[in-house]
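ARCHIVE CARD
Drawer: 12
Card no.: 0347
Subject: one protein chain, sequence and derived structure
Cross-reference: see card 0346
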Amino acid sequence: MPTEYTVMETEPPTTKTKIALVGAEQNGKSRLAATGRKPVLFHEFDRKKESLRGLPGVYVISYADPAWPLQPTAAQDFLTNISKLENSLDLSQLGFKVPPGTLVKTNVVDSVQMLGKSQGILCEWMGRNQLRNV
C-alpha cells in the first residue's frame, strides 16, 4: 500500500462506534446498551430479556438450543440473522412487525460469552460422530 497522508482535522467523526461492556452479572450492561441509538436490536443468548421490558425502540431476538439429542440451532440461527442484516438493516426483513424501512441503528450481542458457548455446543454436536473411544 502506498504511503498515505491525511489531515484528521478535516475528516468527519466516525459513523460507527464499537463498544464492549464488561462487568459482573446483573449490573445493568444490557440496560446501558439499550440506551444506544434507536432502534436497538438485541441478539439475546442469556435469557434475560425481561430486564429490557417496557423500553421503547428495543427489539430482541432470543436464541436457545433445543434439548439434547436434537441438533443445536442457536449459533446457526444467529449467523443466519447476521447474514440478513448484511443485506438489509430493516427490522421488518427479520420478521418484526414494524413498518418497512425501520432500520437498526444499534446492534447488540448479549452476551458474547454465551454466543461462544452456543458455538462450542454446535461444534461438539457436529463432531460427535468423529470421536473414537479407545
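Annotation on reverse: Helices lie at 29-33, 74-87, 112-127. Residues 28-129 form one domain.
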